[in-house]
C-alpha cells in the first residue's frame, strides 16, 4: 500500500471531531515522551500513558478501533499525518 493510500485511510478513520482533538493532544504527548525516557523516565511514562489514553478515548467517540490494529505501520503514519496537518496550518 502506498503512503498516500495509508494517509487517506488514516483520514477516513479519524472523522469525529472529538477523535481528531484527542489525537492532536495525544500524538504529541507520545512523541515527546520517547526521547524523554532517556532523561526523566517518570515524566516520560506519564506522558506516554496519558497520550495513549487520549488516543483510545478518541476512538471510543469515533466508534472504530485504532488503525494501527490493522497494520503497525500506522504507528508511523499517525504522527506523519499530524505533522503534515500542523505544517499546513503554519503556512
TrEMBL record:
Keyword Transmembrane set for record: yes
Keyword Transcription: no
Family annotation (InterPro entries): Mpo1-like
GO BP annotations, alphabetical order: sphingoid catabolic process
Entry GO CC: membrane
Keyword annotations: Membrane, Transmembrane, Transmembrane helix
Record-annotated membrane-spanning stretches: 21-54, 66-83
Name the UniProt record assigns to this protein: DUF962 domain-containing protein
Amino acid at each position: 500500500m502506498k503512503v498516500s493510500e495509508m494517509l487517506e485511510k488514516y483520514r477516513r478513520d479519524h472523522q469525529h471531531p472529538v477523535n481528531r482533538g484527542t489525537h492532536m493532544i495525544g500524538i504529541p504527548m507520545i512523541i515527546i515522551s520517547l526521547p524523554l525516557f532517556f532523561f526523566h523516565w517518570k515524566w516520560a511514562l506519564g506522558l506516554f500513558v496519558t497520550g495513549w489514553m487520549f488516543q483510545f478515548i478518541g476512538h471510543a467517540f469515533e466508534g472504530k478501533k485504532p488503525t494501527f490494529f490493522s497494520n503497525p505501520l500506522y504507528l508511523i503514519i499517525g504522527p506523519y499525518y499530524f505533522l503534515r496537518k500542523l505544517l499546513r496550518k503554519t503556512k
